[in-house]
Write a structure and sequence with these properties.
11 strands, alpha+beta, seven-stranded mixed β-sheet, single chain, two-stranded antiparallel sheet, globular
Amino acid sequence: MSSPKSRTQLADEALARYYKQHNRPYLDNDGNGKFQNWVEDNGFDTDGIEEEFNVDADESTLGDVDNDFPCVKGKELSTEDIIAILKRCWTDPNAFTNEVPPLQVTADHWNFPDHGKKNGQAINKDIEETKEIYKDQCPTIFDQGMETDQAIMKLLAVGRRLNEPYLCFLADMYSRDRLKAGPDETLTTTDWALKNKHCLELKTIKPSSGGGSGKGPFTQTVSAVGSFFHRIVPKLMLNPQSEIVDSLEATAKYIAASVDFVCTIAKQPQLTCPFQVDTCIAFNKAQDCSKMAMQGIDDDDDDEDDGKGNDGDTFSSEFYDCFGNVKDRLNKEGCKNYATEINNDVSKDSVRGARMFMDTYGKFKAQALSTKYKGKAYNDYPRKHRFCSLIDRRDKDSKKGKSTSNDEIIFFEPPENCNKIPDEEDGHMPLWFFDSSRTCIIPNEGYENGKHLKDIDKMASSKSGKNNEEKALSEPITSSTPCKGAIMVLSFHVEADNLIRCYMYLNGQISRFMPDDIIKVLPRFFDKKFGNNAKFPKSKIAQELVERMKPQLRDIKFEAFYSE
């Protein structure tokens, strides 16, 4: 059995892949790589290499790895740029694997000719077609305000020309940069764009007179990213008004198991992509921490974030359960489901937990879905479908349909109005995934595949005379439902096994999820006095979970766009 490769060898191989992408030779006549030669010439060991990454760029010898380092898009790289590439190779053995070129956006993608006038207003074919497609595929989020939002419609039309989720990429990039800035720094969309390389490049594109408001790409992009977090889903507030009273470690292990499960499904031999999975965790309790949040209010732009989810539920000291009997709700609405108890030993072991996900999903498909899907439709499932899972960590309670104090996992199909990815000539639009989650995850009794949502009088009468808890239970749970702070949703938008976009919803608010969020973001949303929550972020198991998820949760197109 061969010995494992050293970090130097792995970094050398990663840098070789980078050179190959730029059509540049990397090995010398003896077959040795440039990074390996640099290490040996300087007599560095692992600690010595680490020190070179930690000193200022002008003091580091890393810039000497190659005096003719491959440039990017014809632009010569600075020493800082070269060190950043080398650091990526050093920290990620999979760097530049299955890479794609960064998304190139040009004037041809932005400038649309007008095709006439209607009521004195210019008509643009690209934008009108985009409106019709989104109106058809995204009925929940596509309201009149979104239809008349010129900036967001222009960005969506540009995305169609690119055949990429361009607006999502921009919103995700802002979301990640905002997290990097931290909760104590304000980062408005304008401030972000003024520092963002891609947005600054848009300033060089001269706007045409057609296809929108006439404003330039930079201005429209700033406006559209702001609209994304106002019209589609609110951005995650980093100073939350409630905190989850539960184990951060157990939650992180379930997240890692969910990532492992989704990646396993995506890599199956049969064609399973695209598909969507919404993984929810129902917590037993959350508590008000608004006084602490007020000490560092997270108000970093004017996108009308007000501490509310989209259903208008405000946080207060009164806590009540918003889930009720989930299995009963699913069964009464005809949603196929399969539930099983999670052994406590399994829930503590993230690897066994991942197998538990796969085993339970297999039974869900064999025992529940086999009565609905036949032949090719059954064999291809979940291709072009959306399904959900719920990890129920609530206490034992017969009223909640919970007969055990152990955790329970339920796999289920959401209602028919939001469980199939559109199979149309133009394909599915990127915002469909957000629309489906906001339409319904867990239906209420009487949901009737969304029919009751169109009957305002019926909705009003269903809430009449009820207290807050009864009102909550009479409504569907969606991605915008705060559930008094006692829910987390991980929404996986899976286009391919290396194109997996994952989003985390807390309190009805969103952030693009990355593995190290379990260390850098989640602790802010958990009671630090509960169990080992205060110590977990710096623990060995936390870092192991992060490293385990990194090679699984890949979105190579966004990675290329973000790291450009």
